User: What shape does this take?
Amino acid sequence: MGRIGDKKYWGLFGVSKPTSSGELDDLVKKGILTRIGATGRGTYYVLKGS
Assistant: This one.
C-alpha cells in the first residue's frame, strides 16, 4: 500500500511544512486521500479506497 506523510510530501514537492499540511488536508476534503491517524508523527495519507 502506498502512503505518504507530511515530511515526505514537503520534501518531494519543495514546499514548507505548513503548506504541505494544508495541501494534504485539502486532498482529504476533496475525497482523494484518507488520513490515517489523528495528528503527529504517526499520521499518513493513502489514496481513498486503498
